[in-house]
Prior knowledge:
Elements lengths: L11 E5 L6 H5 L6 E3 L2 H10 L25 H15 L7 E6 L4 E9 L8 E2 L1 H7 L1 E2 L5 H5 L17 E2 L3 E6 L7 E6 L6 H15 L2 E3 L3 E5 L10 E10 L4 E3 L6 E4 L4 H16 L12 E2 L4 E7 L4 E6 L7 E7 L7 E8 L14 E3 L6 E5 L11 E8 L11 E10 L1 H8 L11 E3 L6 E3 L3 H11 E3 L7 E3 L3 H5 L1 E2 L6 E2 L2 H11 L3 E2 L6 E2 L2 H8 L7 E3 L6 E3 L9 H6 L3 H6 L3 E3 L6 E3 L3 H12 L39 H4 L12 H16 L13 H7 L8 H13 L13 H14 L6 H10 L4 H11 L7
Parallel strand pairs: 2-4, 6-7, 9-14, 15-17
Antiparallel strand pairs: 1-8, 2-5, 3-4, 3-8, 9-12, 10-13, 11-12, 16-23, 17-22, 18-21, 18-23, 19-20, 19-22, 24-25, 26-27, 28-29, 30-31, 32-33, 34-35
Helix pairs in contact: 17-19, 20-21, 21-22
Amino acid sequence: MSGEDTPTLKWSASFSVPSTSSPSSKRIKLSGDKILLPPSALEQLLAAAPVSESLPDAAAPLTSAFDPFNPYTYAAERHARESLLERQQQLPHPLTFRLVNPANGRVVYAGIREFSAGEDEVVLSSWLRLALGFKDEDDTLEEENGIKDTEMSDGADVSRNPQKTGETITVHARQLPKGTFVKLRPLEAGYDAEDWKALLEQHLRTNFTTLTNGEVLDVPGGRGIGSSSEHFRFLVDGFQPEGDGICIVDTDLEVDIEALNEEQAIETVKRLAEKAHRAPGTTNGSSSGGRIDLFQSEQGQVLPGDWVDYSLPSWDRSQGVEIELSGVEDNQDVQLYVSPLAPRQRAKPREDEYIFAELDGRYPKRIRINPTNAELEGAEAIQIAIHAFSESDKTTLPAIGFTISVNPFDPSKEQSSTSTNSDTPPNPGEARCDNCHQWIPERTMTLHQNFCYRNNILCPQGCDQVFQKRSPQWTAHWHCPHDRAYGSTPQSRLAHDTHFHTTTTCTHCTLSFSSIAALAGHRTSVCPAKLILCQFCHLTVPQDGDPLHPDPAALLANLTPHELADGARTTECHLCSKIVRLRDMPTHLAHHELSKTRRAAPIPCRNALCGRSVHGADISGNTRLTTSSNELGLCSRCFGPLYVALHDPDGRALKRRVERRYLAQLLTGCGKDWCRNSLCRAGRKNLGMPEQGTSARDALPMIKPELVGLEGGAALHFCVDERAQESRVLAEHVAAEGVYAVEWCVGALEASAGNVVKGREWLGNWAPKIVNE
């Protein structure tokens, strides 16, 4: 059937657009080109869904039992054809719509999020409201999206003429072609593909189903606090196939970035050249960072406003870690941030997301982490970030040099050293100056104090710092009126006020905080956007949840909200084949571990060369496959040649049969070249032992000790097959490791048919370990 004959979905309706303050708009936060329609719209769409005419040939039966000569099979065939007709009456995927604002004629294409809006209402995302010309009552939507009324220098007009909310729009069902190519034009110069490429791909995949020609894409950039410049804006300017819109779901989309005009292209090349000149790792740029080890000192530099990241991959977990930042001039403000790389903490330390930080203006800066710190539990590495504070985002100032070092420290020794009395003079005959607090010889104290009080001043606010009275450090010295912080440069005061006394808002959950430090505590604890390594899907994902009303089930299970939902998936237990939820699997396996101590241990065959057990063992952990046993404690294979259906209450006949079997082994042997039986003629030859017992006269003295120990439980020595002999040797080798008892090792090798790898797996699943008291 040709593409022109393909049935299309025809449906349209008018809906009112609620304001952003209405409950229906606040209930779900929409992004990209997503809309909400009422449930009645879904019913209308299903009713209008076309029925495909590509039904099978009427002569071809749909049911295998259909017989045209049997009237009883006609009902099943008719039902199958009706079911096929119902299955083919489905909505296209994905559902795309053409939105028209009749007040200004604006048109944009959109995808559906849910059918949960209020009746006769359509809820639009912020991007769609702006594209259709709607504006919020507080007149702040454009500032939040980072898009302002602009006219392109080449004549392309992307200005907005906002309308008031409360109007209506017309929604048309429109199936768009799959896009293969799109041309984007950056609205600002200096965009680097390394910065926006991955962000654009993720932004389109997460938030958009369609693209509309002539609209502006706003791609958020980094996580800078309040940084309006962290946005990449592109004008959509052409598709393949040509048209007003395309669908970008389930298609390979080629993206071409072309400058808006020649002046922008020249400016972009100029900015990229400047950026490369100050790129990380270059002479004029910040250091590239990387790995740092204990007892290692690294010298580097950082541009104002830039970050240098280091990683400590390993350290002695029994000792603490001291991270020291030094080599910075007193008039510079370089900050030290530290966060562990753990399953519950994946993000690099940044200004608004860190665990430990040293932000004062005094050097050297030290962060000490005790070995008992809970943040280090399960940590794979310790991430260290060095940041140079800057009043703006521009990095035109020269780089600042620093030295970073990591060393272990013993907390117990640290406590003993700090407990010493600091009032004890270091040398006899010395006293402390009341002004500068230095230790001075008592004989020169009067001369020193006359000079000291005339030229130096002790800070009266209790920081015990001494300055020259006419120095710029004393002029700029400050104490925070809200806390105990202090410094001696205007930049350090600005950095302190910015970090600790500036109200800020979380960009992910819109909660407000009194300071960036409080925001950092939120971002590393209960923020829904905090990145974790999910223990079930093994992906780095946001933890989700409500920061104000945490889920009690997640708290009790010690899981994040994402893990609680992801852990609801089920899987089959590899031990008992039961269907268990992923989040319940640790408890389920703990029950298996507890049951090991109550499981009956295998009873090895009394034959010293046999690797089988008396009752048998299988791969499912069963150690009692049979209940039958014999008076000699042999497995069924070893006892089989000795079995006779004869009443023998005192065991004399059995003893004679054992004697005859030993005589047969010593006189003729089994003739196998792999036999290692010391009471077999072939086995003694293979072991290199002297021939002995080749006659009945010589053999009987060798057999007598075996018969004496027959009732005492001594080991027997009967020839067995090669696999049983090898399994016994391997079981004894595994038992020699001291982890599992020999009887469990025998059962494991029997269940795994002599495979050591599978035998060790069997032991881990079913056998209890030896408890060393």
